[in-house]
IS2 transposase TnpB
Amino acid sequence: MIEPDHPQLSIGQQCNLLSIARSSFYYTPKGETEQNLDLMRRIDEQFLEAPFFGVRQMTWHLRNDGHLVNEKRIRRLMRLMGLMPIYQKPNTSRPAKGHKTYPYLLRGLRVDRPNQVWCSDITYLSMRRGFLYLVAIMDWHTRKVLAWRISNTLEADFCVEALNEAIHKFGSPEIMNTDQGSQFTSFAWTDRLRRTGVRISMDGKGRFLDNIFIERLWRTLKYECVYLHAWETGSEAKAGIRKWMTFYNHQRPHSALGGRPPAVVYWLRKDENQPDQQVQRVA
């Protein structure tokens, strides 16, 4: 996919054209033992079922399944995965010290059109010998995934890249809702939204249900795609996620949309709300 010795394009330019972070090209799986990677997979599966589990509950759960683990080990693995036991919320929702947080704006709000509200979140992706992180930007009303990026770190850059792509392709939303993670309270993220005139909304601490639609996306993605594969490289993971996201947006029936795929409903309802405008469709 990427040619290191390309005569005209640098590796960075090729990564930009393919919409992947350059760090993903150089990514080598983390050096965890097979036993720890298996535990991380089990933790991830249980966290989808019970996102309120902290270190103690997760340790008890694994012990009940016959794994001889202590809290110190589970705490380290959950932090490595981006799962935070302190507030019973993903570690991706811990604000950086000194970063401003914003109130939750969606309580009681009727969301009835595309681009009224977008939401974003980060999740952990298991691989055969390591792991990556995935961020997605979703339209709240139609559940369409507007953009996504994969990274091997939890820095804010890959989130801002996904946001820029979504705004470039689909315009800007009225409200963007996220958790209180350091990526989403960072200056790079909030400044991009403020300069575009977007109102910023953030989940309450420990309230994963405030961003429930994208949490459901992660559950569906992992059971229908991630857990069925054992990717070796970042390129394999990106190709697999891209294939599933295309299927999800354009083919997969969604129960909340009357059995229609999200992309179909997004463009149909966007046309209804902009009858006099020429709308350019993008995937």
